[in-house]
Write a structure and sequence with these properties.
The complex is a heterodimer of chains A (481) and B (265). Chain A has 481 residues and is mostly helical. Helix content of chain A is 71%, strand content 2%. Chain B contains nine helices and 14 strands. The chains are: A mainly alpha (481), B alpha+beta (265).
Chain lengths: 481, 265
């Protein structure tokens, strides 16, 4: 049985079912409440202060989550999806993405609801906790939560560190002839300074970094699309035609081809939005909100933004058909670079200045994406480690993390096998999360119903809020000898 | 060594543990001007809460909601001011702590000096007369609790009673009742007649007014009076039903002026 099929069976099918069910139980929240969601989120960005439990604002938490979600995968990953599945992949990416908004809403709401608030105001939350505390308060649930935490630490090192930094240093070397040893050292120092400041510093950096890189990338992509505006209608139509074509870009034909395109689109959507994988809810759990559902709205926005970036990438690549057509064997990173190099091409002549401007800016954007992703995943890994072993190991992890950032360019990885392995790892990691999402569906339904009835939010009993139980001995130094 | 925080571990639990192990020594609380409990062979024999001692001090110590404490086995009690059977005393401390929890939420700042809102009332109730005699605008709540002949908890109950009857302001009551600006946060409730403010603010208003109403002024002069209730986690905010917001032409995140008042609705 190949990894692609395993991925489909254990990841795509259950997540698709979960996404449909969450859409139903939330009353189609991503459709019915869309204007409300935008006014509650993007419409309220200026409201920085919210005097409630939580370390960072809802906006900052979402920016951390977006830093982790929208990595180089939204640029290189989407390009890879087009190379493997053709333009039709994008339509299925949208289909799953729209459904996944409800799934992400559920994940974020659960992470907020079942988070743990400590006496010093710090917060721990995420799938490992809602699995351990919400699924069933028994040993098996705690074991599942721990498994998720362990896998997310491994995934963080592989996907959030190694792949990102390696991609960034390669891009910087190709565009500016910068030696990886220097760039990785510089990146390691930058990352250490950011993650060394904990959740609040990561949040402060993320709230500036993500909008900045989003703006630069959007300008760059729009530049490419406008330059090839004549091709835009055919590029867009290829998305719809390709989605149902029996002669798809992938090997084979007929029904199998369509299923492969759908599968590719759904897979790209999962990895572009992280919906169903659970990790980004670790950031959302930190937010200051009066009700978990309010942060759940930000989950919907997170998927929306990720889909927008993926779509921009896809349209930009598709407007340069000479680059992607007939390149199924090509490397996605090279394909997207070639697409942006074409910025320098006017008619049959080639302006190297424009070409290097396009690829140079892309290299900078890829580096920004890489730094953003790596600080977000470092935070996820820290929180997962905190769940497993408490706070004492945070600095150990930070130093190992930075060491890996420095070494990343020197660890030779074969791209295709790495992507397959990484996605396989994410698929395995998602299993405990999917189990929890199915079991905790009524909780999300009740929270949603309560919120829209204006009922006060009741946080579940927290084991850390000790009052009379013998658990209080944990916080005492006790030795009567 | 035994130390921790009273917020995490109830006083009764600490005393029971010392009683079970037949320990002698002094528990010191890092609170106000100092509070201690002396234990001899597991039995509580002394309590001091400056300047009170004995059972009055023990009652005041059981009102403490959060304070670090440390048990010093090498410091034996310097005097014996309490002489009650251990089990009865434990039950009493448990009851006191439980009652105080509610009272402290309504009487938070003991440094405030209650002042009469109107003229000094008359009363035939000797307990009320006792506390009325101590309210002079100079004595703080803590002073009154120490100086009253009534048990401290009873004196605290009467102070709250007076506040509910709007006979007194709790020191800075004038500040509490002043109009204040809160940021609007929509809720999607069908009830348009109730707004929600932070629980702490609500509790201080409730202490003064009993039933709390508030008039809310919109940006363009619109006004409406609502019933007020408290909710957690909305410090600096006022939750208003979305439909009521539309009527007042309010949008999320704007600041509105709120004037609290008492009454029925």
């Amino acid at each position: 049985m190949n990894l692609d099929l395993i991925r489909s069976l254990i990841l795509i099918v259950p997540l698709l079912i979960a996404a449909i069910l969450y859409t139903v139980i939330s009353g189609g929240i991503q459709f019915a409440k869309l204007p409300l969601i935008f006014s509650e989120t993007l419409g309220a960005i200026r409201e920085r202060h919210f005097g409630s439990s939580g370390q960072i604002s809802a906006y900052q938490a979402t920016m951390i989550a977006l830093c982790g979600t929208v990595g180089t995968g939204s640029i290189v990953g989407i390009t890879g999806g087009i190379l493997l599945g053709g333009p039709g992949t994008i339509l299925w990416l949208w289909v799953f993405g729209v459904l996944a908004m409800a799934l992400k809403y559920g994940e974020v709401t659960l992470a907020q609801h079942l988070r743990r608030i400590y006496n010093d105001g710090s917060i721990l939350g995420g799938p490992f906790l809602y699995i351990a505390r919400g699924v069933m308060p028994n040993t098996f649930a705690k074991f599942l939560g721990a498994i998720f935490a362990v896998l997310s630490i491994i995934a963080a090192f592989a996907i959030g560190n190694l792949a990102q930094i390696s991609g960034a240093t390669t891009a910087l070397e190709a565009s500016f002839d910068l030696r990886p040893v220097f760039t990785s050292l510089l990146l390691a120092i930058v990352v250490l300074v950011i993650i060394g400041g904990g959740a609040t510093r990561v949040a402060r950096v993320a709230q500036v970094l993500f909008p900045l890189m989003l703006a630069i990338y959007t300008i760059l992509v729009l530049g490419l699309i406008i330059k090839n505006i004549a091709v835009l209608p055919s590029a867009l139509s290829s998305i719809f035609i390709g989605a149902f074509s029996l002669k798809s870009a992938v090997a084979g034909g007929g029904t199998f081809a369509i299923i492969s395109v759908i599968s590719q689109g759904f897979a790209r959507s999962i990895f572009a939005t992280n919906a169903g994988l659970g990790v980004s809810s670790i950031a959302h759990a930190q937010a200051q909100v009066d009700h978990p559902v309010r942060q759940g709205f930000w989950g919907v926005v997170e998927v929306f933004v990720a889909l927008m970036i993926s779509t921009l990438t896809a349209v930009a690549v598709l407007t340069v058909p000479a680059v992607w057509q007939g390149m199924q064997e090509a490397i996605p990173a090279e394909t997207i670079t070639s697409a942006f190099r074409s910025l320098g091409q006017v008619g049959t002549t080639f302006n190297d200045q424009f070409a290097s401007l396009g690829t140079g800016t892309l290299a900078v954007v890829i580096t920004l994406f890489a730094v953003a992703t790596t600080i977000a995943w470092a935070f996820y890994a820290e929180e997962a480690l905190g769940h497993l072993f408490g706070d004492g190991m945070r600095w150990t992890l930070r130093l190992i993390w930075v060491g890996m950032v420095f070494l990343a360019p020197f660890i030779v990885v074969e791209y295709t096998s790495f992507v397959v392995s990484a996605e396989f790892l994410l698929a395995i990691m998602s299993i405990p999360n999917i189990v929890a999402l199915f079991i905790l569906m009524p909780t999300v339904q009740n929270l949603t119903r309560g919120f829209f009835r204006g009922e006060p939010y009741q946080a579940p009993d927290m084991p850390n809020q000790r009052t009379t139980s013998l658990d209080a001995y944990d916080s005492m130094e006790f030795n009567l000898e | 060594m035994l130390r921790g925080n009273i917020a995490d571990f109830p006083l009764v639990g600490i005393l029971q543990m010392l009683q079970r192990d037949n320990r002698s020594g002094t528990i010191r609380f890092d609170y106000a001007q100092g509070a201690t409990i002396g234990v001899l062979s597991g039995r509580v024999v002394h309590a001091f809460y400056a300047p009170s001692k004995g059972e009055r001090a023990l009652s005041l110590i059981s009102s403490i909601q959060t304070s670090s404490f440390e048990f010093h086995a090498d410091h034996l009690p310097i005097e014996e001011s309490i002489d009650r059977p251990a089990q009865i005393l434990m039950m009493e401390i448990h009851r006191e702590a439980s009652e105080w929890r509610n009272l402290r939420s309504r009487l938070r700042n003991w440094t405030l000096a209650p002042i009469w809102a109107t003229s000094v009332p008359s009363s035939e109730n000797p307990e009320r007369l006792e506390v009325i005699g101590l309210i002079d605008g100079q004595r703080s709540i803590e002073d009154i609790l120490h100086q009253s002949d009534l048990p401290p908890r009873r004196a605290a109950e009467l102070l709250i009673e007076f506040a509910n009857e709007q006979l007194i302001h709790m020191g800075s009551a004038s500040q509490i009742t002043q109009p204040l600006e809160l940021m609007v946060l929509p809720i999607y409730a069908p009830d348009e007649t109730t707004i929600f403010v932070d629980q702490t603010l609500y509790t201080s208003w409730k202490t003064i007014y009993g039933t709390v109403l508030a008039t809310l002024f919109g940006a363009k002069g619109e006004r409406q009076t609502f019933r007020v209730k408290g909710r957690d986690n909305i410090l600096g905010r006022v939750q208003i039903a979305e439909t009521a917001m539309r009527k007042l032409k309010l949008t999320r995140g704007v600041k509105v002026t709120i004037v609290p008042s008492g009454g029925t609705r």
